[in-house]
Amino acid sequence: MILEVRGLTYRYPDGHQALRRIDLEIREGERVALIGPNGAGKSTLLLHLNGLLPETPPREPSVHVGGLAVSAPNLAEVRRRVGLLFQDPDDQLFCPTVWEDVAFGPQQLGLPEAEVAARVGAALAEVGLVGFEERLPHHLSRGEKRRVCLAGLLACEARLLVLDEPTSDLDPRGRRELMGLLARLPVTQLLATHDLEFVVEMCPRTVVLDGGAIVADGPTRTILNDEALMLAHGLERPHILRHSHPH
Amino acid sequence: MRPALLSPYRHGTSPVHRAAAGAKLAVALALILLTVMLPRGAWVAYGAVGMAVVVIALASRVELRGLIVRLALLEPFVLGVALLALLGPDGPHVFAAMLAKSTLCLAVMVLLTATTRFSELIGVLWRMHVPVLLVTTLALMHRYVFVLLEELERMRRARRSRTFRHGRAVTWRGSAQVAGQLFIRSSERAERVYLAMCARGWRQE
Amino acid sequence: MHIPDGFLDLRTAATAGGLALVGAGLALRDLRRRLPPRRVPLVGLSAAFVFAAQMLNFPVAAGTSGHLVGGVLVAVLLGPAAAVVVMTAVLLLQCLMFADGGITALGANVLNMGLIAPASGFAIYAALRRLGGGTLRATLLATGFAAWCSIVIAAIACAAELAASGTVAWRQGLPAICGVHMLIGFGEAAISMLIVAVVARSRPELLAPEGSGSAPRRATVAYGLFATLALVVFVAPVASSSPDGLERVAERLGFAGRALAHDAAPLAGYSLSGFSAAPAPLALVIAGAIGTIAAFLAAWLLARVLAPAVPRPQPR
User: Fold this and answer.
1) What is the set of domains in chain C, with CATH numbers?
2) Quick check: helix, strand or coil at residue C92?
3) Residue B12, CB half-sphere, CA atoms under 13 Å: how many?
4) Most buried of the four, A169, B173, C223, C282, by CB within 10 Å?
5) Any CB–CB contact under 8 A between B192 and chain A?
6) Closest approach of chain A CAs to the CA of B106, in angstroms?
């Protein structure tokens, strides 16, 4: 079991109840989609998976990553195991060059220089950005920035990739490239997204979040085909399922 | 991508480009110090320094027209201060000497910044044991300057497309609004950058 | 106000550089001690913000426009220590990437715009704000007047450094540089006030919490003292050198030199008596006082416009 969430509850400082008793389990190798309307609490949930929330680490942790409790003494290891990809790559790509950014994680882990260099090289190769080492972030396209961020997570040898809206703001080619990349990566993945076509193509399992609670969790086709369920939670049945395409 | 063009760095593979940033900074500083120390009427010496600058510029293979344009754009600031020298005794001689020396120094800096990345210069400062808080600030500033300039441009465009009256007061209020919004957005982004740094195991020393 | 290379002699540049190193070092140490890790990226992002905001146009007249410097603005938003670090970073970027400001003059530029301006500005801001009761209107008035003062004080330091280097005579340089910057200061004041008003209206919690107790007061006094000390180091020796001596030198060099001094009038024409060989000291002081009072009144008026009084509830 890579991820175990039991009874996770969270209330914002201003009183707004963001998460209500979330129960979630993800097994090694799965690719799970997390869908729901805006304001459902998707991003809030994701921030709990690597301990960025709650602001003060809980004494009785509701989240366990690979058996390790997400609590104060384990935060460093948790953040290594859980690679969180932020929605805006500009927020995550904060180093001056591509190489330095991908190297950031391994360096913070205290790895020796040679090991860092090896991991950076391997990670960039995995995302198809060999030769980009000295490039400056603001010269990259959004898709390339996203892939650099992904490389940064792979360089830490994350065991669970948590991605917040990975295909948003990408042009069709960028989207295709990212989908191909994610399909190739053997790492367990949890993807929060609005891109329902992407969900159908990539994720065998879907979790629906609305109003801070999980309202559905099961095989993608079953859930996404349930028109009433989708409409009730601010979603809709994706086009790709409405009509059978003779591919 | 106009904001990105703002950067004076011109990529190249000349020996000047490939030289270590610290060495280039040291040479630039040496040339500038030498020029500043030269006495007022030493026109031969000024010429010699000028020749050195031209030689390095040619060796760098950077487009000369670009360098001259940048120098010309910066010259008015030198002129402005030099004009003040006219007020004092022996005005014209002081003015001419100031202008020559300052322009030479400016040319050295234009050349340095065209062949050396700012991020490399930050690296030099880091090795000189500049405190980590300042180095981090420099690095983040350099990283996000262009992001913010693009945001600024988007906000200005949006404001312009909603402005039907014109005039100084309207422009002032509009620019202040944009600046205020930019600060707020930058603060929010700073929060997210902090989270991103923590998410990748940032250890604050 | 960026001084290029070649206008400061090495002794002045080194002195200014030494002071700048000490001041910036102290501010960095102070900031590192009291800045929570959560706010570290904010310092970098704020430096980027200042650089970007300096690009905004504030049209003045006939095609010219004013621009923000930002020392006091950042001090109001983030506190004085952060302001010093932010402005130092911006000045380093401007020097090492855009050749704006000489590298030998970097110490002086950091001293003037990165230390003296935000430090003196913050001291004035904090004192004025407390006197005004900490209301939004008091905050805005304090911001505006402090911003104006910071520009003028930095200009005085700049003129002193140029005079100490023998580049520009103090008697001519001070009125010229200071006069121009007294005008520029109005722009800085207005822009800073407008921006603070925008932030205060949308996100008041972003304004640097002044806190209560003696610690912030001590900091205010400390910064004010540092700025004063730095100024005195340069202004005192220069201002005390006999102005008559310089005029006598001009006479000895012949009429041509003297004539040029006369003809170069326009730049310095703010003294009441008009520009002759050198403005009388009393006229200088009076002109300065008038400028300062005008700046305070202008800030006060704008503060009233930006923060209209909340009507007091009538007793029933």
Assistant:
1) 10-306 (1.10.1760.20)
2) helix
3) 21
4) C223
5) yes
6) 26
